[in-house]
């Protein structure tokens, strides 16, 4: 028997299916929304603990100083003057290379073809590192193997054409705060030219670590000191000295004889021989004494008779 549906029932069925489809779409959208929120939350938490960009920022700031391996100091006013000048000029050069990819926008000396770096660029580099209040007097200075000339007329440093300078390159390994200061732990990786040997294999392993100290001024962190780091380079395990091997008895005796000594057995034999010789000497002495006493006794007897 065929059951026919009334128009009202058809309408209710269509509405029910429409509500089911709408509910499915809403459920899918809610699921997508939840997954999106979770993904965004995970990314936000990861960014809170990911300091890669900050490490790179401090590597760029400190590259000039690390090149010339400054000695520890407390207070930027106490840093070695030559080291600061070297770091300021060459740090600026490296910063331009990293950020602009070259020196197309800079002039060169028409006579020597040396690169001209304006002093204002050096000041800008220093301001990011040690703060805008610090001022450095620009002048010509001598390095170990070159002269960095400052032209008062153009207010530019003349940078010699050279392969590379400095002994180390920087890698920031850790950032942490202590006693109100930001400690930036920097690993020192030797440059190829620092070894003066083409046979030396370059490595990305730091040979030492230093902590650069930054203090907060006007909402920014600026360099204020340098100290030894608690982080130490991976030391190569020293080979353990082997225990000395025990000598055989025959070797001991040979060693004693070689130094003019005697073995215990030899000593006992010598003692026995000495004792026998002593006993023989004693018996001989007693015999001689007895033989001497006999004539004396006979003489005494004759006198008494």
Order of helices and strands: HHEHEHEEEEEEEHH
Number of helical segments with 4 or more residues: 6
Name the strands of the widest sheet in spatial order.
1-9-8-7-6
What is the CA-CA span between the terminal residues? 186 Å
Question: Can you summarize the main beta sheet?
Answer: 5 strands, antiparallel
Estimate percent helicity: 40-55%
> What is Rg?
47 Å
Residue stretches low in confidence (pLDDT < 50, at least 5 long) are 194-201, 236-244, 260-267, 293-305
- The structure class reads alpha+beta
Organism: Faecalibacterium prausnitzii L2-6
Keywords: Membrane, Transmembrane, Transmembrane helix
Protein name: Ice-structuring protein
Provide structural commentary.
The chain crosses the membrane at residues 21-42. Residues 234-245, 265-278, 292-305 have a biased composition (Low complexity). This is Ice-structuring protein. The chain is α+β, with helices and mostly antiparallel strands and 305 residues long. A five-stranded antiparallel sheet has the order 1-9-8-7-6. The protein is elongated. 47% of the residues lie in helices and 19% in strands. The model is unreliable at 194-201, 236-244, 260-267 and 293-305 (pLDDT under 50). It has a domain at 54-228.
What is the topological layout?
Elements: H1 7-49, H2 52-67, E1 73-74, H3 81-100, E2 115-118, H4 119-130, E3 141-142, E4 147-151, E5 156-159, E6 168-178, E7 181-190, E8 208-217, E9 220-228, H5 249-258, H6 264-304
Antiparallel strand pairs: 1-9, 2-5, 3-4, 4-5, 6-7, 7-8, 8-9
Helix pairs in contact: 2-3, 3-4
